[in-house]
Write a structure and sequence with these properties.
The complex is a heterodimer. Chain A is an alpha+beta fold. Chain A contains 5 helices and 4 strands; from the N terminus they run αβαβαββαα. Chain A has one domain: Glutaredoxin. Chain A is globular. Chain B is 29% helix and 26% strand. In chain B, α1 packs across α2. The N and C termini of chain B lie far apart (33 Å). Classes of the chains: A alpha+beta, B alpha+beta. Chains A and B meet through β4 and α4 of A and α2 and β3 of B.
Chain lengths: 108, 76
């Protein structure tokens, strides 16, 4: 069961350039931190895949082990774990996040 | 059972001895905190590793009894 969730997480992370694991959907976030993460990505005009962990208990637990990160939301870009909403906010304010996505567009 | 600000700060300091820790109780409800952790030993560590180091000091409470901890880290 855990291995199954891990394989599904791995597939999601590796098959999408930008993935946000969150509580709720971008239209109806179910937590302030997920809402903030969504707002940052939308403000940067980034296309992203979102995964609602509230709809999938396997992924909800599995994602924490996958990245060794205890909380949700979690952002992955080009298969790499970037961070949670605090790191996203810091990187947004410093301009690093915009740079990261410019790299993504250039690569695709 | 929510955690007290002092308890959070003490756990972080115990795990990262050179850390300066400031805790702010965001909502005044003992459940939503912001922490700023500055530790010279963070120098050269990526942000994710710095945050993971802080979470490690909380021994699994983060995401459990400690629901909301806005975290900022820096080396200085």
């Amino acid at each position: 069961m855990i291995d199954d969730a891990n394989a599904r997480i791995d597939a999601l992370v590796k098959s999408n350039p930008v993935v946000l694991f969150m509580k709720g959907s971008p239209l109806f976030p179910q937590c302030g931190f997920s809402s903030r993460a969504t707002a940052i990505l939308q403000h940067l005009g980034v296309e992203f895949e979102s995964v609602d962990v509230l709809q999938d208990q396997g992924i909800r637990q599995g994602i924490k082990a996958y990245s060794d990160w205890p909380t949700i939301p979690q952002l992955y870009v080009n298969g790499e774990f970037v961070g949670g909403s605090d790191i996203m906010m810091e990187m947004y304010e410093s301009g690093e996040l915009a740079q990261l996505f410019e790299g993504t567009k250039a690569a695709s | 059972m929510p955690m007290a600000a002092d308890e959070i700060a003490a756990m972080i300091r115990a795990g990262i001895p050179d850390a300066t820790v400031e805790i702010t109780d965001l909502a005044g409800d003992g459940d939503h905190y912001a922490a700023r952790v500055v530790a010279p030993s963070f120098a050269g560590m990526p942000r994710v590793k710095q945050h993971q180091a802080v979470y490690a000091t909380l021994g699994g409470r983060m995401g459990g009894v400690l629901h909301a901890l806005q975290l900022t880290t820096a080396a200085q």
